[in-house]
Amino acid sequence: MPVQTLGRRKSYTPYSCMKIITSNTPGSEDSHGCPFKHWDPDTIAPRFRKYGVPQVAINEILGLVRDHHYQIACARYFEATHNVPSETVSINHPNEYFQKSREFYNNGKKMPSSGVSASV
Q1: Segment 88-117, tens digit of pLDDT
Q2: DSSP state of 31
Q3: C-alpha distances in Å from residue 67, one per residue of 2, 37, 38, 41, 74
Q4: Residues contacting 47, CB < 8 A, separation 6+
Q5: Is residue 68 within 8 Å of 93, Cβ to Cβ?
């Protein structure tokens, strides 16, 4: 297959949470976006219950979503699912969420960088 048919092979920086929250809503065939902004709150609660998130945390998260504090809701979800003290986590980028989660499950050890920038 000729190289020109494979695309430009350009490396794109992934979007920050703020860019994802303020950009266009994903379509029905898309699989991206911020679940706290783009999902219906009535869909979030049963899913979080299924994941074992305590009802108190679900109520707090839904309140934050209703008040349009999507990044804080994400941080509270992280805290609830990783058993870390409330209001100790700040999430500004999906890669940051992933990296913090990896570190949590690897007993706090810093993980090597994947080479993907978390800027924008």
Answers
A1: 899 999 999 999 999 998 886 665 655 444
A2: -
A3: 51, 11, 14, 12, 13
A4: none
A5: no
End-to-end CA distance of the chain: 34
> Tokens 């969420």 map to which residue?
97
Place of tokens 């809503």: 25
Q: Token digits for 23? A: 């950009």
Residues contacting 67, CB < 8 A, separation 6+ = none
Question: Which residue is associated with the tokens 């940051």?
Answer: 96
Dihedral, 96, 76, 35, 117 alpha carbons, nearest 10: -10
pTM listed for this prediction = 0.78
φ, ψ for residue 38, nearest 5 deg: -95, -15
